[in-house]
Amino acid sequence: MKSWFFKSEVKNDMEKKEWEKFLVRSNDFKKIFYVNQKTKVRFCFSFMSTIIDENTLQTNILPYLLEKDFNELDDIKLIVPMSDVQISDDASQIEQKIFNGYILVTIETEKKRFAFIAAQKEIVRTVAPPEVEFSVIGPKESFVESIGQNLNLIRKRLPIKELIVEELTVGKLSKTRVGIMHVEGIADPENLNTIIQRIKDIEIDNIVDSSYIVQIISDNKHSPFPLLLDTERPDRVAAILAEGKIAIVVDGSPHILIAPTTLVEFFGSFEDYYLNYILSSFFRLIRLFAVAFSILITPIYVATLSYHYELIPKDLLSTLITSRREVPLPPILEALFLELTIELLREAGARLPTKVGQTIGIVGGIVIGTASVQAGLTSNVLLILVALSALASFTTPVYKMGNTIRVLRFPFLLFAELWGLLGVVFCFILLMTHLLRLTSLGRPFLEPLYPLRVHDFKDALIRLPFSKQNMRPQFLRTEQPVRFNKKKTKDKKQDIDE
Amino acid sequence: MTNRFGVGLLSLFFLTGCVQKEILDDIAIEIARGYDWKEEDKIEGTMLVYNFQPDKSIKNTTLTTTASTSRELVNYLQEQSPEPLSEGSLEVFLFGKKLANEGLIDYLDAPIRNASIGARLFLVVVDGNAKELLNGNYGNRGNAIFISNLLLHNIKYENLPKTNLQLFFRDYYEVGKTGFLPQIKKIDDNKLELNGISFFKTDKIRVIDTLETEKMFYFKLLVDKFSEGSHIVERDADKAVIRSISSRHKMKITKRDPYTVTVHIKIRGIIREYTGPGTLTKKVITKYEKALEEEVTKECEALIKRFQEQEIDPVGLGFFIQTRTRGLHLKKDWEESDMYKNLTVKVVTDVKVLESGVIE
């Protein structure tokens, strides 16, 4: 009997199925046979041992299949205490399911049918405080590299049935799971359809991070400006979904994309909402000033010193001339030299391990700064300006926009050298025409400045108190433009004792 | 589309030569210029050039030459300068008294035609020689800054009416108005003083009269407004200093054929110093108010008489009447007839002392 059994098993096993041919070449592919102790049904597990959770298999699946009444495949749904059990007769699914962490169960008696039990092993980093968009007050959660965990973080903040996640798979090789989230009844379906269509149309082999998706589905792929906002804060995503925007969650990426977005949104830190509206409006204005300062100050220095000496106040002339007395370079080379030095420092600081990185600060700040002034290569006035503009460029809360601002300074410098302030103005016009033409999901990027939407200023350059924020942004064309009843907020709540 | 844009952008780079480059430390920044009469049809020009010392102090460096026109003069001076002379930062233009008496029209063309020279440039008449004045050493921020600060402070707090290149030429081109400029004098090598206001005849922009320093207060009341002035009022042997004077003037045509213009001058001030018998009661204050009213009326009317006799009109009475009279053609009706000479001007002054200090 035993030899017959064995023979039959071998024989059975020798008939390698089409889908197995490749799988068996991987060492972590496992195929194990078992016999139910009650019904003596012989069944077989096939799975990739590296991506399933063996613990689940040993405690939640195997004991039940061995000891309970197990006659046919449909019984699995009843006896195994797992939520994701699928019965199918479609052999083409097998490979995909196995690589998604399912365990394939087959039994002798039903050759054409298969059962899949989900037992994915999730190696998830613990939820850490946000590093890029850190805030002193407010929640200290940030997204991790797992789509499941990320959805969990968002759903906890919006526990409503209207929050819908649609999942797509992108990438011929990576098979990356991409979830598109929106709140039904608020978000404009047009936006949703645009995103779904664009993501479906993506033709690429490998998606590693959400930044790939940004670059592929942006309205203008040749713009230095990011056209989708990315964030690592669940609170921001939840707030933005409630506003009627759409979030794109990509598996393996701790950054979630938000669309459509506008330029001013990149200069609002989410901490703005945790502070009093007067403070946050002030900080927003400071940030905008910092951006303008960071882009324009060195070009203006170069332009005035090369072309418009008559604009310099008489009291400042002596400071400027004496500080440039020793400098052999014309203003443009002097400025480029310092700007490049700062860029080098920043780049080196970003690439080096944290511990070594500290020395870069010392080397940059003290050695290069002071030494180049003493050596007479740069004037100390410019050194101050460049340092200040570097400092100002760090105030941008969204890292990607900060990078854009870093780069923008150089065309401005070039134009300042070519035509002085006229060139700066010309470059500014070029920048404005570019910004005016940009769209995010077809919605104007410069809104509410252009097209002018006065109502949307409540949360743009400044932030008004929450009682004034009762309407959703106009440019989103939400299905439900009213957020809450403003009348109820207006009444001053009377104390019960009065 | 992108290609066309790129070509357009690239072609712009061929235009780079169209802008003249003047790097700050490779030019000689001219900050003041003086013209003097040398001989018939020759002028002597002096340029004050910024010269910064390594310790940030400023040395006064002047270049001087003689030429027949002001353009020629600049060209000759370029030959003396190690770096190109640039006119963009000019603060003051000085004219020697003798040249001003001859007429300045040929020398004022340069500053109004050059776009890089600011409209707030000061034009000044020098009582004496401009070259000598520029060769002095005043203050520690350079002579030009010294002169312009001297004028600025006198305009803001003292009795000099607002004046600069733009205002002078507004008056010059206005029919029915003539210009005036401040006059300064060198006292010694380290000192200057503001010593009057020169009035110009429009024809060749030549000085016809100079107002004494004591009368400048009344002149400013007529043409400008005070916001921070001060004035001493004398009554018999007593004196009171009125400070924080603010004033407004308003003109009205009260009668036509012949024209009568009434100038209402409103003065508000605070008594800060008083020397006299007894305390400063309300009665006494009223007396001082009356005294100042009479004084201002008398002096202002005398000033206008003086202008009428010399056929100059720095107050702009002719211009004022034209704005209120339909069909009056100033060039024809005014300047060629005796209308200005026969004009009657009345000055009505209203003085109020708002405070008289705290000590009773």
From TrEMBL, chain A:
Main localization, broad class: membrane
Pfam families: GerA
UniProt-listed InterPro entries: Spore_Ger, UPF0353/GerABKA_families
GO cellular component terms given for this protein: plasma membrane
Regions crossing the membrane: 285-307, 357-375, 381-399, 411-436
Membrane protein topology class: Multi-pass membrane protein
KW Amino-acid biosynthesis (keyword) present: no
GO process annotations (BP): spore germination
Keyword entries, A-Z: Membrane, Transmembrane, Transmembrane helix
Localization: Cell membrane; Membrane
The keyword Iron is assigned to this record: no
Homology family: Belongs to the GerABKA family.
Protein name: Spore germination protein A1
Organism the protein comes from: Pseudoneobacillus rhizosphaerae
Gene: gerAA_3
From TrEMBL, chain B:
Coiled coil location: none
Location relative to the cell: Membrane
Membrane topology: Lipid-anchor
Spore germination protein N-terminal domain ranges (all copies): 21-185
Record Gene3D superfamilies: Nutrient germinant receptor protein C, domain 3 (3.30.300.210)
Limits of the Spore germination GerAC-like C-terminal domain: 195-357
Any single biological process term in GO: spore germination
GO cellular component: membrane
Keyword Lipoprotein listed: yes
Keywords from the named record: Germination, Lipoprotein, Membrane, Palmitate, Signal
Entry's family note: Belongs to the GerABKC lipoprotein family.
UniProt protein name: Ger(X)C family spore germination protein
Organism per entry: Pseudoneobacillus rhizosphaerae
